Every structure is written in structure tokens, then in C-alpha cells.
Automatic annotation (TrEMBL), chain A:
InterPro entries: Gluconate_2DH_su3 (IPR027056). Pfam families: Gluconate_2-dh3. GO terms for molecular function: acyltransferase activity; hydrolase activity. It comes from Tanticharoenia sakaeratensis NBRC 103193. This is Hydrolase or acyltransferase. Keywords: Acyltransferase, Hydrolase, Transferase.
TrEMBL record, chain B:
It comes from Tanticharoenia sakaeratensis NBRC 103193. InterPro entries: FAD/NAD-bd_sf, GMC_OxRdtase_N, GMC_OxRtase_C. Residues 119-301 form the Glucose-methanol-choline oxidoreductase N-terminal domain. This is Oxidoreductase. PANTHER family: LONG-CHAIN-ALCOHOL OXIDASE.
């Protein structure tokens, strides 16, 4: 991630409603480098006015004001006066509180360990999915003395965040050179090549879901890593299967669905929340927080038809899980980077104008131009 | 309106809904006989050269209007089961072209189970031979099973799965042979179409054949139909049927580009496939005095067995199902009635991967590891008899689609016969794969094809159409697609559907 100098002077606009006890913003500002000027805004309107004066600024809020700060940030970004960063201290997200789907801004979220509404577990599941460039920092409570005890660390972390380049972060594997050469060759038709180029485009960490809620996308991201782990095929970033499945869910669909399930996008949303509730009930934390063994246990139950939780029935979860497996595989295996790694040349079955097909098609045969694939496995089955 | 087009307001002799295996041969026959024919096709008209082996993109040739799949053996649709476009499901079918076994016409007489067809194999044989000649079918001559026959083209080259199946079958003493395939292996020039090239073993039959080696109807019957004045209209989804005061069909309502239109006609042929034909009739409430519309929905038992081999198989190479055995049409040790045909299987990666995900149930590191063996796997598959059961049926769900039509719901459950056949086939195919040296063998329980729903028969109280496809209730309404099959029969259906289509065309001309 490229570092950049924060523009100066910087103002830290703190949403601090009158009459509500807030954190010691002054002390915190003193720990931030370079030192920002402090502006306490009693209302959202006041904060908005302060933001509009043209200076570079960052926005901060604590507790129940976090949601309002996020909404304001969203509006400011829309108005073209984006804050440089956002700081949310011990935020509390009330059930069903209105907030933007995605705030694509560097954000520091300070959580408070323990049985609190701002525990790192809760925030990781309920808030972080909305903050694709968010960083979660956790300290001991109580939250009203956070600055007193951890002001220095929080200030330092926020200083770092201020230096973060807000450019979109691309993820996903690259196509191996040999396969890229095959794609460029006359064994591939122009139309197929274009499709492959389109599909090879990177994923974005800040992908804003089109069909699912951000919370559900986060659960799906966690689940797809367990359902189809990509280690062994890619040593770097995996393909963001969840984002790609979400994109697919926002289109017309594949021509059918199980009658026992609601329409695909709804089924996914409901199934993922059912999985999450099961994780809370069985493992004491949201799905994205519980460890891999617990996630696997939950998915095994879904697969066996024994996952009982509020939401979809165990039988529905089992059907949905077959859809999930198929969607993962389909998304994975049709990615050109995967094809390259596995040595799959189905898309190189002929170009235009000459449709060559394949000449060596017998057992153990392969033409020289056909790829082998670094991650392809042979006949030995473990 | 195209040059060959007809005016909507003028009644044409015949409107045909659907241009697939059931619709196309009849459209060509009637047009050649001088009838004015309008064909309404919901899907687009494709340019074969633009077909792509990329599986997600190839879904453009799948029927993607949502279907609700229920029952104990819910079937996958979309890419697994039905196509769309001028040419119907034959654009993406596998082109496996066996003839229907004569015994399957009389299953009930033979076993007391299932139903008999209202005529026997002899009745259909001339039409079968005509279709084979007219579209171009390859296969081995002599053919080791059934009546002697000659195939016009030599079989396509055997790919790795075919070679392995030959090896396994030989070890066990099972006869196998190059499969009859609707694939031409030598160039062919057709006056109404142009040149079709020989198969180049590209493996993408299910994604659409780019050099027209695969014989469909878009490159055979439909060009003939057009040359004789048939007006084939892509992008036209039929949504309603209008009757006149005497209860005969007077016009068809369809939607083109979001606009509702009406085409007057003197006769109507439904050839929209077993789900859509039934859906249209249920939606309009027509031709259903028997309460048989939608019932006896059947599939083929389509169990597959896969294994992993030492040498590379590259299962996307070559015509996918190049080998056949008909030895299991009436196996001696059968604990079921009817029989099944077996084929070797190559498969494109996403289709195979989805099968692995759905039917093998793998996930986690085991799934990833197995996918990495793709270039070393090969499969066997069957198509087997599936007995009619009235509770397996197409009904209308409460949900509506974008056109405002109720989405169809298809309930499908295997009965004991299907389960016994699945188990038998799993055992036999596993033995063949063991004999051929496979490792990590597993079976996929799956059903394919959409059959029944408007069965033909002589009794108007137990069937929807007569033995020529004419509605018992409405004398200028005909059905000509996979829905009229009284029983599933083991053979892959396209050849029989096309033969029936030519036969129904003759009946319409004589009516
Ligand atoms: C993946 C796959 C592989 C197959 N492999 C083989 C094989 O190897 N061998 C074999 O013999 N058979 C095979 N089949 C089966 C074969 O393709 C079908 O049985 C056959 O095409 C069915 O013919 P049909 O006329 O009933 O329907 P279709 O061929 O499906 O034609 C129906 C047409 O009607 C159109 N339509 C539907 N509703 C409407 C409406 N309301 N208005 C206007 N148009 C409408 C559809 O778009 C479609 O084009 C395969 C099928 C699939 C899907
Ligand atoms: S394998 Fe042959 S018939 Fe099938 S799509 Fe390729 S060229 Fe056409």
C-alpha cells in the first residue's frame, strides 16, 4: 500500500452531541501525528458545515454516534468532500440501525474487549463488512477511559491510517505466463479471449455487494474459504469467490432453483444468516469470528442436514449447501488463472477463422502447445 | 417483417411454438408441402461461429426462465436440461443418437409395468432412417445390436474415456462399439445451408458446435423450412392461445420485444418441450379434459461413474460420448424392468466440477485436491428407462415470471425401479472402471431429460393426444415434442422426437 503525506492543515471533526459524555478528544488529537486541529461538532449539521470549509479533515465519533458519522461520511463522499479517514471509538451499532452499505474510506475502529456491544467479535461481524478499508484495534474496557489508558496507541494507529492510500485494493491471482500465451494464441477465438480477459480482471477488497448485504458477503467470504480452499493452487491471493457469486446472484439466474428454497439471492442471504445464528448459538460468536474448526463443524452440519438454527430449516440448509458448493466450483474452475494452474485447455479448442479442435485426444496424449499446469495432479490419488 | 414473412392478421395454415427437435422437422415438412408456416421461438437466433467453449457464457443457449424443482429427486435444469434458441435444445445436446430399442415400445406387454406405445418400432422405423439420412449421423457399420443398419459417416475419433471404456469392457466381456452420433466426420454441402465441416474433436458439443459438424435442426431442417417460405421468428415467446366460438384454435398470443402480439392460424402445433408445452396448456387450461396434462413427467436415469487414471485423459478433448454398449438393455441379472444404454464420458471442466460439487458432496481441501485431478479423470454414464408415475408432474407455481406467466414447478421422485436401475448401473460401471484400472471411483446419482406431460394414446381419458399427436379435445391443436412420449424408453430421445415430428407432419397434411 503506497504511503502519502496527509494534506495540512488537518482538522479532526469530532461528532460530540451536547450533554452526552464523550471521550477526551483533545488528548487523543495530541497523540495523532501530524497534530490535527480539533473541532467539536454538537450536531451532524455542524459537522457537515465544518467539513465544507475546504480544509482537509478527518471525522471521529464514539459509541452510538458511530452510525450517524458513517451516514455523514457517505454523504460527504457523495458531495465530493471526503474525509481523509474515519475514527470510530467503541462504536455501538444498534440492531437495525440505518447505516450505509459500504464506506470505502480508511477507518480505524477501536473495539472494547469483553461482553460489550463494541466487542471485537461483534464489530468484526456487524460493522467491519461495511468498512472494506477498515482496521480493527481492540483494547480493554471500560470504554469511557479508552483514551486515558490507550490514547497513545490509538493515536499512533490513526496516524498510520491517515497515511494510507485510499486507492482501490486489487486482489486475486495472476494468470501464469504460459497460459496467458495460450490465451493469446490462435487456438482461442476472439470472443472467448475477450470473455477470459474480462473474467481475469482483479477482485476488489472494497467490492460492494450487489445482491447480498455486506454482513452476508462477509460470512460468504469466510465460508467460501472453507468450502473451496485455494491453497495448493494459488500461493498468493485467492480468487474472491464470494464477490463473484454475489455478482452472479444479481443477474437473471441459472434457470432453476430448488422449490424448497426461496429465490437464489434470498436463499443465500437467509442461509448465511442462519449459519451465523448457528455459530452464535453453538460456538458463542459470529461465523466470521469463530475459528476454522468451528466453521467446518457448522458447514458439516449444513452438509449433513443437521444444522438447526433460527432461519432456514436444516433440510433447506442442506439444499443451499449443494448450491454453494456448485457455485464455488463453477466460479473457481472457470477463472483463467485456475485453468492455467490446472492445465485445463477447454477454452483453447479452436480459433477463428480456423477451428482447429484437438488432434491428440487419446489416452496419455497431448500436443506440444497444450498447457500442463503447475498445480495439476496426476493419477495418484491420496 | 422478413421477405418470407406473413402478416400477423392473416391466418396462416400452421403456427408452431418451438423450433427444437419436435418442431423443426415438421416445420420443414409442412413448408415443403406448400403450407404457410410461422414458427415462434422464444430464444434468439445464434451464429454458430460465435459459440464459445466458455461454459458460463455458453449459458446463452440454455433455457434460463426459472423453474422450481421439487420432489425427492429434484432435477437440475438450466445447463443440465434444456436449451433455447432457433434449433432448440439440439444446439447444446450431446448428439448421442441411438435408435430406440423395439422392446421399449411394448414395455407393459413385456413386463406388466410402465405403458406400451400406441404403435410399435416398425411404424417408426422409416421415419428414423429418414432422419438419420437427412441430418447426418455417424456410427459403426455393422452395428452389433438391433436391426442391421448402415451409418453414412465413420465414427468420430475415440477420445481417452472411450479408449478406457473399451479396455474395461473387453476385460469383462461386455460388447462395446463406437456410438451412433449426430456428428459428421466428413464435409457435407447442403443446398439450403451451405458447407458443414467435419468434427475436429473440440469437445464442446454442449456449448454449441462452431463448425456445424454436430447435426442439429438449425443446420438441417430449419434452413430447408426457410428456403420453402417458413417464417421463423426468434425472440417470440408464446403466452396464450385464443379459441374461436367453436372451441378451435384461432390465434396465438406471443410477446416479442416486450410487446404482445397475435398471430392468427388454422392449426397450432406445440413443440416447446415437455415442461413448457405443459405449462402453456395448464396456463390456458386447454386440451386437458383428461387431467393428464403435466402428469407422468419422466426423466432418464442418468447415473454416472467417474474414476482417476494414471495417464492423462484430458476429458475435454474429443466428441464426449464416443463409445456405447447396448448390452444392458435387458441384463440377465436385472432387478428392474426395462434397460439402459451406457456411454463413455468426457466432460467440460465446469460441468464436471458442478457434478462433483453436487453429486459427490465433496468440500474443503478434499474438493480442491480432487479438482486438481481433472486432466486424469474419465467417466461412464447411462440413460435408462424411467417409469411413468402420475405424481411426478409439472404444475404451475404461485410465482410469476417476467412475462407474467406462472413459473412451472416440476416434482420428480425416483420409484423403486429407478433406484434399482441406478444401483445396478453403479455396480456395472464400477466394475468396468475397476477393470480399466481406475482409482478413486465414485458414482453420481442424476437424472436427465424432460419427458412426458402430454402423453399420446388411444384413450382420450388417459392421454392428451392421439397416436399422431393430435389433441383429443381440440382438433386443430397438435403436440409434437418430448412431452407426448407415453414411456421414457432408454434411448436418448432426439432421434425418436424428430422421427415423430416427420410423422405428425404427414398426419397434419392428411387432416
Ligand atoms: C445438455 C443436454 C444434452 C442432451 N444430449 C442428448 C443426446 O446426446 N442425445 C439425444 O438424443 N438427446 C439429447 N438431449 C435431449 C434432446 O436435446 C431433447 O430431448 C430434445 O431437444 C427435446 O426436443 P423438444 O422439441 O421436446 O424440445 P426442445 O428441443 O428443447 O425445443 C423446445 C423449443 O421451444 C422453445 N420454447 C419453449 N417455450 C416456448 C414458448 N412459450 N414460446 C416460444 N418458444 C418456446 C424453446 O426455446 C426451445 O427452443 C440433450 C439435452 C440436453 C439439454
Ligand atoms: S466435438 Fe465435433 S461435433 Fe462436438 S462441438 Fe466439437 S467439432 Fe462439433
Amino acid at each position: 500500500m503506497a504511503a502519502s503525506e496527509p494534506a495540512l492543515p488537518l482538522t479532526l471533526i469530532c461528532l460530540q452531541p451536547a450533554g452526552r459524555r464523550g471521550p477526551d478528544w483533545g488528548t487523543l488529537a495530541a497523540h495523532i501525528s501530524p497534530n490535527p486541529m480539533l473541532h467539536l461538532a454538537e450536531t451532524v449539521e455542524a459537522a457537515r458545515a465544518a467539513a465544507a470549509n475546504g480544509d482537509a479533515f478527518a471525522l471521529a465519533a464514539a459509541g452510538a454516534d458511530a452510525a450517524a458519522a458513517m451516514i455523514l461520511t457517505d454523504k460527504l463522499i457523495e458531495a465530493g468532500i471526503a474525509p481523509r479517514a474515519l475514527l470510530l471509538l467503541a462504536p455501538v451499532m444498534a440492531q437495525g440501525a440505518a447505516r450505509p452499505d459500504m464506506v470505502g474510506l480508511p477507518t480505524l475502529v477501536v473495539a472494547v474487549h469483553g461482553e460489550t456491544p463494541s466487542s471485537p467479535e461483534t464489530l468484526r461481524a456487524r460493522l467491519m463488512p461495511h468498512l472494506p478499508y477498515g482496521r480493527l484495534l481492540a483494547h480493554d474496557g471500560p470504554d469511557d477511559t479508552l483514551i486515558l489508558r490507550h490514547g497513545k496507541a490509538i493515536g499512533a494507529a490513526f496516524s498510520e491510517i491517515l497515511m494510507t492510500d485510499t486507492g482501490p485494493i486489487e486482489t486475486g491471482p495472476a494468470i501464469d505466463p504460459a497460459f496467458a500465451a495460450l490465451l493469446a494464441s490462435d487456438h482461442v477465438s476472439q470472443r472467448t479471449r475477450e470473455v477470459m480477459e474480462q473474467r481475469a480482471k482483479p477482485d476488489f477488497q472494497a467490492y460492494a455487494p450487489k445482491a447480498l448485504t455486506p454482513e452476508a458477503l462477509a460470512i460468504l467470504r469466510a465460508a467460501t474459504l472453507r468450502v473451496l480452499p485455494q491453497e495448493g493452487v494459488f500461493d498468493t491471493d485467492p480468487i474472491d469467490l464470494a464477490a463473484r457469486i454475489d455478482t452472479r446472484l444479481a443477474t437473471t439466474g441459472d434457470g432453476w432453483r430448488f422449490a424448497e428454497l426461496p429465490p437464489d439471492a434470498q436463499a443465500y442471504e437467509q442461509a448465511l444468516h442462519t449459519l451465523d445464528r448457528a455459530a452464535m448459538a453453538r460456538n458463542g460468536g459470529p461465523f466470521v469470528v469463530v475459528d476454522a474448526a468451528a466453521q467446518d463443524d457448522l458447514l458439516t452440519r449444513a452438509s449433513d442436514g443437521t444444522l438447526e438454527a433460527e432461519g432456514l430449516s436444516a433440510a433447506q440448509m442442506q439444499l443451499w449447501f449443494t448450491d454453494l458448493r456448485a457455485d464455488c466450483v463453477q466460479t473457481f474452475i472457470t477463472h483463467p488463472a485456475t485453468m492455467g494452474r490446472l492445465g485445463i485447455d477447454s477454452i483453447a479448442n479452436g480459433g477463428d477463422p480456423v477451428h482447429q479442435g484437438f488432434a491428440e485426444i487419446g489416452l496419455g496424449q497431448r500436443a506440444d502447445w497444450e498447457p500442463t499446469g503447475r498445480a495439476s495432479l496426476g493419477g495418484d490419488v491420496a | 417483417m422478413s421477405a418470407a414473412g406473413f402478416d400477423n392478421r392473416e391466418a396462416v395454415d400452421v403456427v408452431v411454438i418451438g423450433t427444437g427437435a419436435g418442431g423443426a422437422p415438421l416445420i420443414a415438412e409442412l413448408a415443403q408441402a406448400g403450407r404457410s408456416v410461422v414458427a415462434l421461438e422464444a430464444g434468439p437466433s445464434f451464429e454458430p461461429k460465435r459459440f464459445t467453449p466458455d461454459e458460463p457464457t455458453a449459458s446463452e443457449i440454455y433455457w434460463l426462465h426459472e423453474r422450481l424443482s421439487g420432489g425427492e429427486t429434484p432435477q437440475a435444469f438450466g445447463g443440465n436440461n434444456s436449451g433455447t434458441g432457433v434449433g432448440g435444445s439440439l444446439l447444446h445436446y450431446g448428439a448421442f443418437m441411438p435408435r430406440m430399442d423395439p422392446r421399449d415400445f411394448t414395455l407393459h406387454s413385456e413386463t406388466g409395468k410402465g405403458v406400451d406405445w400406441p404403435f410399435g418400432a416398425d411404424e417408426l422405423m422409416p421415419w428414423i432412417a429418414r432422419v438419420e439420412a437427412e441430418i447426418g449421423v455417424s456410427g459403426p457399420t455393422p452395428y452389433p445390436w438391433g436391426v442391421p443398419r448402415t451409418y453414412a459417416y465413420a465414427p468420430p475419433t475415440r477420445n481417452a474415456p472411450a479408449q478406457i471404456m473399451a479396455r474395461g469392457c473387453e476385460t469383462l466381456g461386455i460388447t462395446c462399439k463406437d456410438a451412433p452420433a449426430a456428428v459428421i466426420t466428413a464435409e457435407r454441402d447442403q443446398p439450403e445451408f451451405g458447407v458443414r465441416h467435419a468434427c475436429v474433436n473440440c469437445g464442446a458439443c454442449h456449448q454449441g458446435c462452431r463448425n456445424d459438424a454436430k447435426s442439429g435442426v438449425h443446420n438441417t431442417y430449419l434452413p430447408v423450412a426457410r428456403a420453402h417460405g417458413a417464417d421463423i421468428r426468434p425472440g417470440c415467446m408464446a403466452t396464450g392461445i385464443v379459441l374461436d366460438g367453436r372451441g378451435r384454435v384461432e390465434a396465438v398470443i406471443y410477446v416479442e420485444g416486450g410487446v404482445e402480439k397475435r398471430q392468427a392460424c388454422r392449426a397450432l402445433v406445440l413443440a416447446a418441450g415437455a415442461v413448457e408445452t405443459a405449462r402453456l396448456l395448464l396456463h390456458t387450461g386447454l386440451a386437458n379434459s383428461s387431467d393428464q396434462v403435466g402428469r407422468n413427467y419422466m426423466t432418464h436415469v442418468s447415473t454416472q461413474v467417474w474414476g482417476t487414471f494414471d495417464e492423462e485423459t484430458r476429458p475435454n478433448h474429443g466428441y464426449p460420448s464416443a463409445l456405447i454398449t447396448e448390452d444392458m438393455m435387458r441384463p440377465a441379472d436385472a432387478d428392474f424392468v426395462g434397460g439402459y444404454l451406457m456411454q463413455s464420458l468426457g466432460m467440460m471442466p465446469a460441468t464436471w466440477g458442478s457434478l462433483v460439487a453436487r453429486a459427490r458432496g465433496l468440500w474443503g481441501p478434499g474438493l480442491t485436491r480432487y479438482l486438481r485431478h481433472y486432466n486424469h479423470v474419465a467417466g461412464l454414464g447411462i440413460n435408462g428407462e424411467c417409469l411413468p408415475r402420475p405424481e411426478n408432474r409439472v404444475t404451475l407455481s404461485a410465482e410469476r415470471d417476467a412475462m407474467g406467466l406462472p413459473k412451472p414447478r416440476i416434482d420428480h421422485s425416483y420409484g423403486p425401479n429407478e433406484i434399482a436401475m441406478h444401483n445396478h448401473a453403479t455396480r456395472v460401471m464400477t466394475r468396468i472402471w475397476e477393470a480399466a484400472g481406475a482409482r478413486d471411483i465414485w458414482a453420481a446419482d442424476r437424472a436427465a431429460h424432460m419427458i412426458g406431460t402430454c402423453r399420446m394414446g388411444t384413450d382420450a381419458s388417459t392421454s392428451v393426444v392421439d397416436p399422431h399427436g393430435r389433441s383429443h379435445d381440440i382438433d386443430n391443436l397438435w403436440i409434437c415434442d418430448h412431452s407426448i412420449f407415453p414411456s421414457a424408453a432408454a434411448a436418448n430421445p432426439a432421434l425418436t422426437i424428430m422421427a415423430l415430428s416427420l410423422r405428425t407432419a404427414q398426419a397434419i397434411q392428411q387432416s
